[in-house]
# Entry
Amino acid sequence: MAFRPLIFGVLFIAVFVLVILSIIWVDKSHPIRQPDPLAPTAPANSPPPTQ
# Structure
């Protein structure tokens, strides 16, 4: 029997599944809603400087 192709196939599928699971784990470890750093923000309501 040809065990070498079977072993390579199982290893390839295992690596593929591990990559997918690591991507899902990294996505869940970060907050889903992140503010866009380039989004315009409202100006701060600071009083004008008096001279």
About this structure: The chain has a mean pLDDT of 77.
